[in-house]
Amino acid sequence: MTQAHPDGYLALPPTGRGPGVLVLHAWWGLNETIKAFCTRLADAGFVAFAPDLYHGKLANTIPEAEALAKALSKNYLQAKAETVDAAAFLSERATQANHGLAVIGFSLGASYALDLAAAAPEYVRSVVIFYGTGGGDFSSSRADYLGHFAEDDDFEPTAYVNELEEALQGDGRSVTFYHYPGIGHWFFEPDRTDAYDQAAADLAWERTLAFLRSSTAA
Are 145 and 175 in contact (CB under 8 A)? Predict the structure, then answer.
């Protein structure tokens, strides 16, 4: 049975086919930055889908984003169910889906990416997280993990990152976390002009692309 198209943005490679990458947005919502990231993945040969967990709402300021994130957290079971639905939708459109998808989560989206890999391991073979963490039991996960974290991050202290890394390793997962010096949260997002760092963003992209290609070649 074909999965209904959930709210979100789908980007296809020139061939129309490729390995699947699920992209989970930051607390700003499914904005143009996330859509452009999906298009960039598609240009690299992946089928990318970003579900809209806010269903059309967007934030431009931190207070607006905090309000949307708070409302989402009150409905977190529904949001988690929507990420599973999005994974099912994408798996029908991606090659190698029987081996699992890659999931990339930004900030708020990172916690949902981590949860999806543990709650629906049949869908996820690799996870990339950008400056976001989360707790939980990862023993059921089958994924490999890549993380990009800022050295000067008021939202995700190094202690949180280290705790996550230890938890994943303790549950037997392959983990590679990179720490980028002298920068802060949102360093990968060009629309956050006060935080964006092009050199770090370019390096994180190269590392992410190499990780995705390695996981799909396995």
Answer: yes
**pLDDT bracket for residue 1 (50, 70, 90):** very low
Structure tokens at 79: 């949001």
Which amino acid is present at 181?
Answer: P
Spatial separation of the C-alpha atoms in residues 133 and 120, rounded to whole Å? 18
Asked whether the beta carbons of 72 and 53 are under 8 A apart, the reply is: yes
Phi/psi class of residue 157: alpha, beta or left (left: φ > 0; alpha: ψ in -120 to 50)?
A: beta
Give the pTM: 0.95
Among residues 106, 24, 26, 32, which one has the least CA distance to residue 66? 26
Which has the closest alpha carbon to 183: 148, 152, 147, 149? 152
The predicted structure's pLDDT at residue 2: 45
- Give 77-81 contacts, CB < 8 A, sequence gap 24+: 79/53, 79/112, 80/112, 80/115, 80/116, 80/119
